[in-house]
Amino acid sequence: MSEKSKPKYFLPQLWQPAFSALHLHPHLYMDDTQIYGFCALDEVSGLRQRISTCVAHTSEWMKVNRLQLNAAKSELLWCTSPCQQDRLPSIPLHIGSDIVQPVRCVQNLGIFVDSDVSLKTHILKTVSSCFAALRRLCSIRRSVSQAVLLSLVTSLIMMRLNYGSAVLAGRPSHLLNRLQSVLNAAEHLVCNACKYDHVTHLLQDLHWLRFLERI
Question: What's the pTM?
């Protein structure tokens, strides 16, 4: 696609004041629009009203520009510390005639973000998908060479572990150990090692880093 034919995404000057006046922060990525705001727990109602007003302005702007806001794919996430989770509001957000209920987890560019920002859901889903891929690879490991098996593990397992790993910095060790267990299983598969073989020399042979070091 040439530069002239590429679609342009931007915040028009008539739309920007709607965010600044309501003390909200927009983020656009291709056809995905995200609105951020923050407040104290006792000021949630005011923030919710500001977001609803901002979404209404956004919907009007989209209609003028022959676009449509898809309320069915809209999500509302309230974030706070783990000890304050029981105080999160359950009041829905109104987008025109549509109602958006708050959720406990959203997916943003392949990263699952929980309401307590623990990323526990993202880690568990990554571990689950990686072990599912490893089980499929186990069934064919006797039919391919080690070089082919290593290439498959790199494509199907390592890419999933490495994607977005920077956001996991500072996560609790018991969660990161789950991801390390995937790495250990992949090492044993590629090297055809026994289940209880130590992973240190396997890491050295494959020139792999431990998961914490990958972050």
Answer: 0.80
Q: How many residues does the chain have?
A: 215
Domain boundaries along the sequence of the chain: 16-114, 120-214
DSSP alpha helix (H) spans, 12-67: 16-21, 44-64
Name the token pair of 194.
Answer: 């026994």
Query: For residues 127 and 125, what is the distance between their CA atoms, to the nearest angstrom?
Result: 5
pLDDT band at 28 (very low <50, low <70, confident <90, very high): confident
Sign of the alpha-carbon torsion through 199, 201, 206, 208: positive
| 69, two tokens | 């806001």
Tens-place pLDDT, residues 54-78: 888 888 888 888 888 887 788 889 9
Q: Which two tokens stand for residue 8?
A: 């342009």
Q: Dihedral, CA atoms, 96, 101, 105, 109, nearest 10 degrees?
A: -10
pLDDT tens-digit profile of 175-184? 999 999 999 9
Helix segments in 118-191, DSSP class H: 120-138, 146-153, 159-162, 173-191
User: Token digits for 85?
Assistant: 């989770």
Name the pLDDT band for 10 (thresholds 50, 70, 90).
very low
Q: What sign does the CA torsion over 168, 82, 110, 29 have?
A: negative
User: In whole angstroms, what is the distance from residue 82 CA to residue 103 CA?
Assistant: 15
CB 180 within 8 A of CB 210: yes
> How would you classify the pairing of strands 93-95 and 76-77?
unpaired
